[in-house]
């Protein structure tokens, strides 16, 4: 019988930039153990059905399927979230949006809106850090709203809720102290859409017109009507879109407009405040 270490050593994932890590995550999931177990018990021999299950995971990964979709979960902020092909996989760069939001407002009560919530990652991260905030996450895809609600229930966060809405379209009249969004912002002709994990993610959550800014334009044009005085709009965008997004924010009459860099040093979030 093969051991844990021999299986990991022979795992072939030639197209993955993190082959060993991918194999460890997949094997740990098959065994129902944390990744640390693989190192502690590296000589343990595995049953044939465990080997077969691991081989099946490797085949899916070699076909390009993201590890998060194979496992059905992904870590974001301090949370473990259920993910599915209906939504984007939460990424570390988006944590900048959460960090920025938390730094802008005090811990006192606030109304917060997350547009295009997907798995609920941003909304749930904010709700988990600020119990006094009332967080609403919206998405136009029913399956995404259902997924976000499952994550909310599992995390037992009562200060967050989700509903279906195409951006602001289905919302009841309200004023928000903070509006955040990680909207689609990739150009329709971007070659990266045919590479890596992105091939398996929903195009509707990625692509936004010829220059990638169609949805950001819609949000910025409408958001000031939904912001309370002194309220903030925060947007994630592409690394080369910061100038264009700041121009949109300023044209909409927002103040204190600026952009911030992500973990890789790329401009990733732009924001502005309603006077």
UniProtKB/TrEMBL annotation:
<dbReference type="InterPro" id="IPR029063">
    <property type="entry name" value="SAM-dependent_MTases_sf"/>
</dbReference>
<feature type="domain" description="Methyltransferase small">
    <location>
        <begin position="94"/>
        <end position="188"/>
    </location>
</feature>
<dbReference type="InterPro" id="IPR040758">
    <property type="entry name" value="PrmC_N"/>
</dbReference>
<feature type="binding site">
    <location>
        <position position="139"/>
    </location>
    <ligand>
        <name>S-adenosyl-L-methionine</name>
    </ligand>
</feature>
<comment type="similarity">
    <text>Belongs to the protein N5-glutamine methyltransferase family. PrmC subfamily.</text>
</comment>
<feature type="binding site">
    <location>
        <position position="182"/>
    </location>
    <ligand>
        <name>S-adenosyl-L-methionine</name>
    </ligand>
</feature>
<dbReference type="InterPro" id="IPR002052">
    <property type="entry name" value="DNA_methylase_N6_adenine_CS"/>
</dbReference>
<dbReference type="GO" id="GO:0032259">
    <property type="term" value="P:methylation"/>
</dbReference>
<feature type="domain" description="Release factor glutamine methyltransferase N-terminal">
    <location>
        <begin position="9"/>
        <end position="72"/>
    </location>
</feature>
<dbReference type="InterPro" id="IPR007848">
    <property type="entry name" value="Small_mtfrase_dom"/>
</dbReference>
<feature type="binding site">
    <location>
        <begin position="182"/>
        <end position="185"/>
    </location>
    <ligand>
        <name>substrate</name>
    </ligand>
</feature>
<keyword id="KW-0489">Methyltransferase</keyword>
<dbReference type="InterPro" id="IPR050320">
    <property type="entry name" value="N5-glutamine_MTase"/>
</dbReference>
<keyword id="KW-0808">Transferase</keyword>
<dbReference type="Pfam" id="PF05175">
    <property type="entry name" value="MTS"/>
</dbReference>
<feature type="binding site">
    <location>
        <position position="167"/>
    </location>
    <ligand>
        <name>S-adenosyl-L-methionine</name>
    </ligand>
</feature>
<dbReference type="GO" id="GO:0102559">
    <property type="term" value="F:peptide chain release factor N(5)-glutamine methyltransferase activity"/>
</dbReference>
<dbReference type="InterPro" id="IPR004556">
    <property type="entry name" value="HemK-like"/>
</dbReference>
<dbReference type="Pfam" id="PF17827">
    <property type="entry name" value="PrmC_N"/>
</dbReference>
<feature type="binding site">
    <location>
        <begin position="116"/>
        <end position="120"/>
    </location>
    <ligand>
        <name>S-adenosyl-L-methionine</name>
    </ligand>
</feature>
<dbReference type="GO" id="GO:0003676">
    <property type="term" value="F:nucleic acid binding"/>
</dbReference>
<dbReference type="InterPro" id="IPR019874">
    <property type="entry name" value="RF_methyltr_PrmC"/>
</dbReference>
<keyword id="KW-0949">S-adenosyl-L-methionine</keyword>
<protein>
    <recommendedName>
        <fullName>Release factor glutamine methyltransferase</fullName>
        <ecNumber>2.1.1.297</ecNumber>
    </recommendedName>
</protein>
<comment type="function">
    <text>Methylates the class 1 translation termination release factors RF1/PrfA and RF2/PrfB on the glutamine residue of the universally conserved GGQ motif.</text>
</comment>
